[in-house]
Amino acid sequence: MPTEQRCDILVIGAGPGGYVAAIRACQLKKKVIIVEKDKWGGLCLNYGCIPSKALLYASEIIETIHKGEKYGIKAEKISIDTNQLREKKGKVVKQLVLGVETLLKHNGATMILGEASFVEPNVVNVKTSQGEEVRITADNIIISTGSLPFSPPSLPLDGKLIITSKEALEIPFVPKKMLVVGGGYVGMEMAVVYHSLGSEVTVMEMQDSIFLATDAQIAKMAHDRFKKRGINILTKTKVENAQVTKSNQVQVTLTSDGKSENMTFDLILVAIGHKATTGGLGLEKIGIETDNRGFIKVNERMQTNFRNIFAVGDCAGKQLLAHKAFREGEVAAEVASGMDSVMDYRVVPYAIFTQPEVSGVGLTEKEALDQGFKIKVGTYPYRAIGRAIGMDEPEGMVKIIADSESDEILGAHIIGALASELISSITVAMGLDARVEDVAEIIQVHPTLSEMIKEASLAVNKKAIHNLNK
Fold first, then answer.
1. pTM of the model
2. For this structure, is 446 an active site residue?
3. d(Cα 310, Cα 64) in Å, to the nearest integer?
4. Domains, the chain, ranges and CATH?
């Protein structure tokens, strides 16, 4: 017989959305149980955002050493110990996982390692990692089971030579020639890492552009920068098949414009998207609605078609971003606790931690026009900023899109050094419904990269001070 437990809020999955939901619910004085079947912190912390950023920082150090020659700082030879790099990445992850565990315990959440499945809309059965069974009855349930990379039949994953980002983050070896299938943020971030480590990297993208969801002007600039640094990018290209050869390489057939070409690589990374991780939950048993890709349908309060069952994070679709999941977790916990909270997707920023970095928030120029807005656009180049020149980072741009009638900021997009940090000030402005003129009046520290935010805001209304207004 299973052990019986009862709580106010049950959270299934301890990734960014789940552990934040549990902590917030505890703060609201609710009795909380959180169940995780793998590792505390979920995909992002263990196999995604955090380990990838540790590796990207290593690649940034390599690039900085090369750049040092322009400043008279010379290194005779750079050697890379991949074992030590892997160990450092592991220590970063371990430290942050421990932090998540500590926060959950400190806030009073009951933590169970195990796999959950629905029995009824308010009853869940958990098979624990110790082989025991626990039946949990909860007033409200928050699903946060995340997502996993997927691969098409033409690219059969073997975890060794045809891999996903999870295996790539372990740096199994530094291949001489590497193919990255997918020109989104995961694919390009890993392309930068392996290129910095010494691989000859080719990126294959089916669509006509990498970073397809970003502003087209920014994506074009990124494409040109990656090619300049030596990453080969093939757009409008498909992989028809892949086969491991006797020499432990992978031969692939690439098709573009009706023409096929056979190429051989030492490693293939598949980064074409994610699928919701909801198998085994028994969603179909109780009738929770999902879309045609398996993501759970929710409203702006993160409720499913059952008012007491919520879904947050990657399994709820939209942008698969940890910080989006953080906020969704807060909203779900608050609504489950009786508060009137809603999720505002209008101001969810994104950042791509490549070199150069790319970030954005709100609408792209094309999206704004397609939605019928009359727009005005202000841009400001890195090369016009003293700090950027001093850092030898003159290539880049800040772009702000506004409604030409109301002066409302519709979106902003940045490419260049520290773009991931710079976007936050515009996100705050949009969240507070500030207008372009409001942002333009803010005094920024000189000399800093943040001066570009002020100047781009001024440029929207052709008032830029340190650049020509066109």
1. 0.95
2. yes
3. 45
4. 3-149+275-346 (3.50.50.60), 162-272 (3.50.50.60), 356-460 (3.30.390.30)
Each residue's pLDDT tens digit, 5-38: 999 999 999 999 999 999 999 999 999 999 999 9
Burial annotation 442-467 (CB, 10 A radius, 16+ → b, else e): eeeeeeebbbbbbbbbbbbbeebeeb
Beta partners for residue 361, in sequence order: 412
Mean pLDDT of 324-342: 98
Token pair of 225, please?
């920068």
The DSSP letter of residue 60 is H
Of residues 66, 106, 446, 466, which has the active-site annotation? 446
Helix axes 322-336, 16-27, angle to 10 degrees: 30
Measured in degrees and rounded to the nearest 5, phi and psi for residue 311 equal -135, 135
Q: What's the pLDDT score for residue 114?
A: 97
Q: Label residue 10 exposed, middle or buried (CB < 10 Å: 0-12, 13-18, 19+).
A: buried
State both tokens at 214: 């970003």
Judge whether 192 and 225 are in contact, CB under 8 Å: no
For 383-402, how does the pLDDT look when each residue is reduced to its tens digit (9 = 90+)? 999 999 999 999 999 999 99
pLDDT at position 470 over 80:
no
What kind and span of H or E run contains 66?
A: helix 49-67
- Exposed (0-12), middle (13-18) or buried (19+): which is 348, by Cβ within 10 Å? middle
- What is d(CA 467, CA 464) in angstroms, rounded to the nearest whole number? 6
Question: Is there a contact between 333 and 310 (Cβ–Cβ < 8 Å)?
Answer: no
Q: Which residue from 151, 189, 226, 181 is spatially nearest to 49, judged by alpha carbons?
A: 189
